[in-house]
Amino acid sequence: MGETAAAIRAVRLSKIFGSQVVLRDLDLEIAVGESVAVTGANGVGKTTLLGCLASRIRPTGGEVRWFGDSPASPSWS
Asked: Which terminus of the chain has fewer Cβ atoms in its 10 Å neighbourhood, N or C?
């Protein structure tokens, strides 16, 4: 990932539901002002990814940061 400041950064993001691996070690960086489209077939993890990025779904592994801060940090409360 680049050296520029990211609005959203996911590092090694993973999500497992039971025995179903939905996201595996996903890295994503979205720069300030950048637009991104998430596409794919039904059931490939688009909604799970967006839920993890929005802190509505807790990832099994990895981390999400918004402007360098974790949505789980006390500063987000």
From this structure: C
Within-domain flag for 1: no
Query: In the structure encoding, which two tokens stand for residue 12, read together?
Result: 């090694």
Tell me if 23 sits within 8 A of 3, measured CB to CB.
no
Q: How many domains does one find in the chain?
A: 1
The answer to whether the CB of 70 falls within 8 A of the CB of 63 is: yes
pTM of the model: 0.84
Q: DSSP labels for 1-32?
A: --SSPEEEEEEEEEEEETTEEEEEEEEEEEET
Query: How would you write the pLDDT of the chain (77 residues) with one tens digit per residue?
Result: 445 579 999 999 999 999 999 999 999 999 999 999 999 999 999 999 999 999 999 999 999 999 988 876 666 55
CA distances from 22 to 35, 64, 76 (A): 23, 16, 26
